[in-house]
Amino acid sequence: MPNASDQAEPKTILAIASYDKGADFLRQCKRSGWRTLLLTSESLRGDNNFPADEIDEIFYMPDVDKIWNTEHTIKAVSYLARTEQISRIVPMDDFDLENAAALREHLRIPGMGSTTTHHFRDKLAMRMEAKAAGLNIPEFCGIIHHPTVHAFTQRVAGPWVLKPRFLAGALGIKKAQNADELWGHINALGDNSSFYLVEKYIAGDIFHVDALTEGGKQLFARASGYGRPPLDVTHGDIFTTRTLDAKSKTAEMLVEANTQVLKAMRLLRGASHTEFIVGKEDGKAYFLETAARVGGASITDLVEAATGVNLWAEWAKLEMAGGDGTYVAPTPKDDHAALMVTLAKQEWPDSTGYNDPEIVWRMKKRFHVGMVVKSPRYERVTELLDSYRERIRGDFFASAPPKDKPTD
Length: 408
Fold this sequence. Notes:
Elements: E1 12-17, H1 23-31, E2 35-41, E3 57-61, H2 70-80, E4 86-91, H3 97-107, H4 114-119, H5 123-132, E5 140-142, H6 146-155, E6 160-164, E7 174-176, H7 179-189, E8 196-200, E9 204-214, E10 217-226, H8 230-234, E11 239-243, H9 249-265, E12 270-279, E13 285-291, H10 299-307, H11 311-321, E14 336-343, E15 359-362, E16 368-375, H12 378-395
Parallel strand pairs: 1-2, 1-4, 2-3
Antiparallel strand pairs: 5-8, 6-7, 6-8, 9-10, 9-12, 10-11, 11-14, 12-13, 14-16, 15-16
Helix pairs in contact: 1-11, 2-3
């Protein structure tokens, strides 16, 4: 029999989380026998939900609004690598992707490099890749060569939306009805204007597809639809999203479009969250943006309620397997679910008055209220979503966070 000293040391994974995300990812890594390290922001010290008892060591990076200096990060992790043989480096959020890619390339660790990462961070880069692949996208133009932007406004009728290339979700997006309004926004950006793009505004409903990929093949995908566009919610409303009937024409169209998007962006493995708009006039799915991570805003809880698939845990399994053929995709359930989240006027809202048995998850966060409902019946989820949306508006809704507690 081999001695204990002859057994291989556990492999080590380093998770990078500038925001308080990824607890289930970390738990799965530890549960799978990997040495689990976390690099996070100094500003989160003592105020986070990371499962400290399932993390071998936590390291903190100095930050300004969760932003790290990449050169300092490389030096810090290189120093750590003197004594830790790191096998995987995985980012938990959009804003961690570039640091993770830079670290992988510097330390020569397998995983997505900087070029492919750019396709999942830069909205202009991902649009150019999508266009080159022949995907259906709104017409767009980078705010770089101003005569080209002027020609775009002459050729493509407004309204348009001005979008930051590197921010997540609806942050920083502005709508312009005409050229004068658009140029007013552009000129106000000054030297930052090249970090934006403009695209044709398409009226329609916005959807998202949350997926798992291995070897460039989509192994799991579930399509859902937002109640209102995230841009509208950013400006003050209740955020809702619900899973679609997986057999509906819309869901099938979105899952197929997602397959094409991830192929165009050359995602090899991991979790992804991709958004589309289905035009009211033509019913086509237009690609908006994608991210090489799980969806935010508790969307993972929505997907898990409907399918039984925990995207964080599955992503961890994919990363640890690293393409060695041992990963087995989960067999999803086919229930229906809806998610509701909003800012609340109470510091710790009491939602116990919402007591239908279909409630399977409740948010526990200061000045927020949220819940997920699920049912095998699509109609029941619709009924609860419509009812709860109005009740929540009356009981809890706040249009802005308290001044001493901004949202994250």
